[in-house]
């Protein structure tokens, strides 16, 4: 016997005052309602209802059970309704994780534009270079930069990322412009130290149809992408930087691209989330918004 179902049907019969009316409300037959109550009586070994052809009445034990169980069942129904309502609402908190380099350049504009459409939406943002297990961390949506998405999640490619060798006009004016990779290696360059491994990352270069990795002696190494961008912008040295971090600088001439034939576009920005089904509305709407924004 499904005790919860039997108890729910018993409460419905008492509220309605008859098996037939309760059956209509529950979408069942009177016989099914009566059978469920009889099973509950047998389970409790007590009579809950007096039945006659003309009248239905509640026994003392039935009245006691109704008095004790009905408030709790109503609270349970309210809890389920509230969870369902929150799932369908656009408001609520969306928990997001992304590497720090995407925080200001990607997430902040997305959050700003999304909240203009849904002012009640709230965001809890975690910036972390590591790939985050969304379920374990109780995160709704993640963003990362890579070559492919993890198989354990649903992922959407948002944009390609080109790595560009560039320098500030002031650096070029003082040190000149390298015309080849050999000349580049004699220049002052910046480097990036991966915050998780502690290793300085080699530059990724396109040579013909191949991608090669070149160790570049750096005059300054950073474990934060935004700080390396600022260093290159200030003229400390030549850097290899991602276009999503410096596109405005390139457009406005604050940074000058060098050796464009060596630039690569192997990486992409991905959005990922645990599953497509049973996604709360607050998450689904944000995911759909991000996908639509990536098309523009």
From TrEMBL:
CDD domains: PBP2_CrgA_like (cd08422)
Domain of life: Bacteria
Keyword set, alphabetical order: DNA-binding, Transcription, Transcription regulation
Domain HTH lysR-type: 1-59
Alphabetized GO MF terms: DNA binding; DNA-binding transcription factor activity
InterPro entries assigned to the protein according to its UniProt record, in alphabetical order: LysR-type_TF_proteobact-type, LysR_HTH_N, LysR_subst-bd, WH-like_DNA-bd_sf, WH_DNA-bd_sf
Pfam families noted in UniProt: HTH_1 (PF00126), LysR_substrate (PF03466)
Record-stated family: Belongs to the LysR transcriptional regulatory family.
Protein name listed in UniProt: HTH-type transcriptional regulator PgrR
Gene that this sequence comes from: pgrR_20
